[in-house]
Automatic annotation (TrEMBL):
<keyword id="KW-0479">Metal-binding</keyword>
<dbReference type="GO" id="GO:0005829">
    <property type="term" value="C:cytosol"/>
</dbReference>
<dbReference type="InterPro" id="IPR036010">
    <property type="entry name" value="2Fe-2S_ferredoxin-like_sf"/>
</dbReference>
<dbReference type="InterPro" id="IPR001055">
    <property type="entry name" value="Adrenodoxin-like"/>
</dbReference>
<comment type="similarity">
    <text>Belongs to the adrenodoxin/putidaredoxin family.</text>
</comment>
<keyword id="KW-0001">2Fe-2S</keyword>
<protein>
    <submittedName>
        <fullName>2Fe-2S ferredoxin</fullName>
    </submittedName>
</protein>
<dbReference type="GO" id="GO:0140647">
    <property type="term" value="P:P450-containing electron transport chain"/>
</dbReference>
<keyword id="KW-0408">Iron</keyword>
<dbReference type="GO" id="GO:0051537">
    <property type="term" value="F:2 iron, 2 sulfur cluster binding"/>
</dbReference>
<feature type="domain" description="2Fe-2S ferredoxin-type">
    <location>
        <begin position="1"/>
        <end position="104"/>
    </location>
</feature>
<dbReference type="GO" id="GO:0046872">
    <property type="term" value="F:metal ion binding"/>
</dbReference>
<dbReference type="InterPro" id="IPR001041">
    <property type="entry name" value="2Fe-2S_ferredoxin-type"/>
</dbReference>
<keyword id="KW-0411">Iron-sulfur</keyword>
<dbReference type="GO" id="GO:0009055">
    <property type="term" value="F:electron transfer activity"/>
</dbReference>
<dbReference type="Pfam" id="PF00111">
    <property type="entry name" value="Fer2"/>
</dbReference>
<dbReference type="InterPro" id="IPR012675">
    <property type="entry name" value="Beta-grasp_dom_sf"/>
</dbReference>
Length: 105
């Protein structure tokens, strides 16, 4: 799916992310700045936070209890914040905008 990662400086980086990768992998493997993913996708670091716009968040599978719990450790979480390693990319997400936060720490 084509994912539009919006960097903290407002720049859009549109990349094609294969189905089955997570949103985190789509950013990290394409060298995009803004995601640290210290734990490598194990839902135990909260440094892969992204913010999903309202119109897209409702279409995603809701966060698991583990993700909700880990979100407490994320930097300045807001409505629409998710951990990108916990969101598998599907073709239905084609065109989705993913905002990368200013900081992950
Ligand atoms: Fe660590 Fe997502 S990469 S919680």
């Amino acid at each position: 799916a084509t994912i539009n990662y919006r960097l903290a400086d407002g720049t859009d980086q549109v990349v094609d992310v294969p189905q089955g990768w997570s949103l985190m992998e789509g950013a990290v493997k394409n060298g995009l700045r803004g995601i640290l993913a210290d734990c490598g996708g194990a839902c135990s670091c909260a440094t892969c936070q992204v913010v999903i716009p309202d119109d897209w968040i409702a279409r995603l599978t809701p966060a698991s209890e583990e993700e909700e719990a880990m979100m407490e450790f994320a930097a300045d979480p807001q409505a629409g914040s998710r951990l990108s390693c916990q969101i598998p990319v599907t073709e239905a997400m084609d065109g989705m905008v993913v905002q990368l936060p200013k900081t992950q720490l």
